[in-house]
Design goal:
This protein is an alpha/beta fold. It contains twelve helices and seven strands. The chain has a seven-stranded mixed beta sheet with strand order 4-3-2-1-5-6-7, with helices on both faces.
């Protein structure tokens, strides 16, 4: 009788193990991404399947503008600030409005909206507002001008990552509070998983004190061990500024709509010097994908009216 009971227990344990294993495999079944080729889908599926048995934290990190949603003709961070300046500050003569408009004028004069001084000025412009007020500025700009610009392919990709047990993080050079609300809603992830340029909050209001590293260029790579604290299995970006971050991936490297016109020539371009963004990542074996990113002629963009340069279109 005892032997029979022991045998039944063993069979039950084996059955339970097989059931749980099959349940896990079903839960981690890949869904084809519409809009990308079979070759790209097969490559992603093979990689994700190879991670099923991993016991470590499975982390994927993506840039924001141009990688998971459109940046044509302008970055949402700029559009949000210039909309706010036009609607709330322009033409006013009080001290605060004049100080904020002086920062806007400095940003326009600088013109290099991917440089660190310009990125810092975005934070300085928003200083004095509460995190909630900044979040609503970003959210309102998203509703007005960017709601239809999130790439459906990237949303499907991120849904697959969740199915396979990945943590999804967004790493952007834009002000963190500006992007957290709308991006968390779009992707169904925690606001704490959206990391941007951080400002110190004092007595409930943001200050001009910036927490380092600023997630721009090499700062994006440094932000991964500083804030996420694990080397990611997947990293995706779209520009030269994402190179250092993407090279932190220990698994899949992804590049979205890479430029194939401008040959990088500066010493600051490091290993990308002598290549376009696309040819560099082709050499590195990265997964290169296309998403449609063109201007909606029905949307007014305040940023262009302030003569900030336009981003190049990427029709699919």
């Amino acid at each position: 009788m005892r032997d029979r009971t022991t045998l039944l227990k063993r069979w039950f344990t084996l059955f339970l193990f097989i059931f749980l294993l099959n349940s896990n495999l079903v839960a981690q079944k890949y869904s084809q991404i519409k809009g990308w080729s079979k070759e790209i889908n097969n490559r992603i599926e093979r990689f994700l399947d190879s991670t099923v048995a991993l016991k470590e934290r499975k982390v994927a990190v993506f840039d924001g503008d141009g990688t998971v949603f459109g940046q044509v003709p302008h970055y949402l961070a700029d559009e949000a600030l210039f909309q706010y300046a036009d609607d709330m500050l322009r033409g006013k003569n009080d001290k605060l409005s004049l100080e904020k408009m002086a920062i806007i004028e400095e940003m326009v004069k600088d013109g290099n909206n991917v440089g660190k001084p310009y990125v810092e000025d975005r934070v300085h412009f928003l200083a004095g507002l509460t995190p909630e007020e900044i979040a609503n500025i970003g959210y309102n700009c998203y509703l007005k001008s960017y709601k239809g610009k999130f790439y459906p392919e990237m949303k499907q990709f991120i849904a697959n990552l969740k199915t396979y047990g990945f943590e999804v993080w967004i790493l952007t050079a834009s002000p963190e509070f500006l992007y957290q609300k709308f991006m968390a809603l779009e992707f169904g992830i925690s606001e704490t998983n959206i990391i941007g340029a951080k400002s110190v909050v004092v007595d409930g209001k943001t200050s001009g004190i910036i927490v380092l590293p600023i997630p721009q260029d090499d700062g994006k790579a440094n932000a991964i061990p500083t804030f996420i604290k694990v080397r990611p299995l997947i990293v995706g970006g779209n520009s030269r500024g994402d190179m250092d971050m993407i090279n932190e991936s220990k698994g899949m490297k992804m590049i979205v709509n890479p430029d194939n016109v401008t040959v990088r020539h500066g010493d600051e371009d490091g290993p990308m010097k002598g290549y376009t963004v696309k040819t560099y990542w082709e050499k590195e074996g990265a997964l290169i994908v296309k998403c449609n990113d063109v201007r909606d002629p029905m949307v007014r963009f305040h940023t262009g009216e302030w003569k900030i340069r336009e981003n190049l279109s990427n029709p699919k």
